[in-house]
Every structure is written in C-alpha cells, then in structure tokens.
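Entry 12.
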Amino acid sequence: MKRPIRVLVAKVGLDGHDRGARIIATSLRDAGMEVIYTGLRQTPEMVVNTALQEDVDAIGVSILSGAHLTVFPKIIALMEAKGLTDVLLTGGGIIPSADTEKLQDMGVGKLFAPGTNTQEIASYITNWVAENRSF
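Predicted 3D structure (tokens):
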C-alpha cells in the first residue's frame, strides 16, 4: 500500500460511552493507520459525509445503545447513495449474535464484541483493505 489505511471511528446517536471507541482509535493509530475520530452524538449522515470528505478506507461504528438495527442499515444506504461502495463498514459493541448475522447479510463487515483483542481488529481491517481497495 502506498499510504496508511484511513479509518473513521464513529459514535452514533445519544450513546455517551466512548471509552471503547477511543481505545480502538488509539490501537488502530498504533498499528500505523490514520484515524479520524468523530466524537459523540453523530448522525448517520454526519458519519458518511465525514467518511467521504476524509477519503477513508473503513468506517468503524461503536454502538452500545441497542440501535444497531437502525443505525447500520441507515449508514449502508447513505454509503451506497454517496458511492462509498468500496469502503468497509465494521464496528462493535453490544450486538446480539442473531442481529450480527442480519447486519452482515445487509453488507456490514465483521462486528466485534467488547474485549476483542485490538490486534484482531487491526488485522481484519488491514486484510479487508488489502483485498478490496486499490491505492
């Protein structure tokens, strides 16, 4: 790759717990990626617009509020509308396994539960970008 992988880490909705998102952002940065952290209380529109403006390779959404079946499909629809069809949408948080399968069937990448080794997340993003993006 000719440049570092660019990842947007986002917190969508009213969920005010961002410790995990900050840990992931730091871990991805330490793995050599460029990380843009949106901060709290973002809308799906704000996330996708930032991803477009920052030319990211991946979007990671941290969600603990239970709104994952609303948030992820909205982000997918906006990504498709804006032409971000070659950008990974991944994330993590408190997401039941049955919902994880539904979201992955919609096009969301791998979802990570709390406590996942951060090297696993970095490796997943690195491998996905290497296989699906060209720059």
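Annotation: The first helix runs from residue 19 to 30. DSSP finds five helices and five strands in the chain.
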